[in-house]
Amino acid sequence: MARNTAPDGGSDSDRVPAQPFDHMASVQQLQGMVRDARALLTDPTVANLNDCRSRLEETVQALRQLQTSLTSGNFRRAATLRAPLGTLRAEIARLSILLDSAAAFHAGWVQLAASMVAGYTAKGTPGQPEPSRSVWLEV
Amino acid sequence: MGNLITALQSSAAAMQAFEQALETVGNDVSNSSTTDYAAQSVSLEALPFQPGQGLPGGVTVGAIQSSRDEFAERNVRQQVSLLGTEEATSQGLSSIQTNFTVSSDGGVAGALNQLFSDFSSWSVSPTSTAAQQTVIDDAGQVAEQFQEMYGSLSQNLTNTGQAIQQSVSQINSYASQLATDNQQIQNGDTDDAGLDASIHSTLESLSELTNITARQESNGTWTVLADGQTPLVMGTQTDQLSVSFSTPATAPATVAGGTPPARIIDSEGNDVTYQMSQGELSGQLQVYNTVLPSLIGNAYQQGGLNVLAQGVADTVNNILESGNISDGPPAVPGIALFTYNAGAPTAVASTLGVNPAATAGQLAAIEPGPPEVSNGIALQLAALANPTTPTGQINGYSFAGYYGSLASQIGEQASDAQNQLTVQQQTVAQARSLRSQISGVSLNEEAAKLIQFQNAYQATAQTVNILDTLTQDTINMLPTTS
Asked: Do B463 and A80 touch (CB under 8 A)?
């Protein structure tokens, strides 16, 4: 009697049983990804900011996978993820603080520069600089 | 997260303004990457001068460059100040936290649990001299644990007070150093790079201790104010700060015998404590004036440890005194088990002791009733372990639970402070990195990068927002119990 074959041509006995999705390890990995992204913000160059963003996008993808597996997994065990996911949110909050701080630095400097160029309005806000104009006279 | 997006939107708008600003002075950003592009010499002198609209006219590029550098320096000092706060707060709270033993068999909590267990045993054998003696012995242990804890926390208070004095002394020392540097500048040493570096280093060290505003005057000297208000250095003159451990006339003590707060006094005798809102000094003041008094009290509050000690002593004494040692006739009333100095509310924990008159045969077990219950008092005392009525409760907690809440509050504060410290350490590293990033970079180059920064900030912020929302959604998906 012929043995059943899997669609890919491999026999059943060749198949490796699917590993159960380790939710806890997955969340810990997400925490590590956010931590690594956060570390980049201690030196917020344009390159590092872009690198940080792409790592965060990877984290978003990984988190979506976790969500998918949660909907099909054992919900009773999943309750234990509440604390590590809370820690993940705390990591994201820390990252936000650093991002906010770097953005505030540039925003502050830009406002200062604008005020030095165009002064302050009566409301106390930096003035709007006027674009330079030039006139060409052709004879 | 909403605040972050708002901040970034504001940042983006400001960056556009900066781009325009640089265009205004003829700095063509689009050409900055063109091969053989010759950087133009930027001048701001030709800008419109419109005093009616508050436009003071142009400034030179040198002034902008210099302002940019000073802006970066100020940012570092500000972040270092916040780091100082977090370091001092975290250190103080960690030190306090080590005094709390929350295990059921150690410290105040363990001694209380043992005493309630003894009451329970006594209720089984209300006439047992051995059971009564065990109660007295373990009541002594309770008193000892309260005294020990109060002593440790008092030592924390002493150490923090000394740290405050050291910080103020160090602030005065840095101020004197800056005044000396100003003297050197006034003597004509205006272009000394070494002196400039030394001044900035001193300003950074000073900002670690307290929040300062430093401004360079037109003659090159530095004026330093604490919190932008209290002069520390003006020219060659320094205004020294001092520490006073006293209650102000405007807020006299409300608790007899309580320790007065630590106050910072300026050279004119004004109380400027509230201006020390950042830096190590701020953290030390917070621990000295707020955190420790919440436990051991001060001139304005009794402190949780004293509240607990008094609650335990009064409750146990009242129950014992409501009972009888023997039903007579005549009936012999019970006596108090605990004593403490009732005249000093903040010294209850430190003076708590066992009534020297209390001996094994004098503990009242009989509840007079009617009906009389031979072990009724011992049962009432045993019930204090898990009280169901306000008697034996503080703020709705059992005595052991109240102690646990004190420990938990300190633990949470210590944990928060440690988290804040970790983030602030990274923020300082970031500020130093930003300072070095712009050091030596031309404004032309910077203007070209600002647009990239703007895009990068916006994109990253949006991703952070998505990630945060997604994480919250995932948490919401989880069942509430395991």
From this structure: no
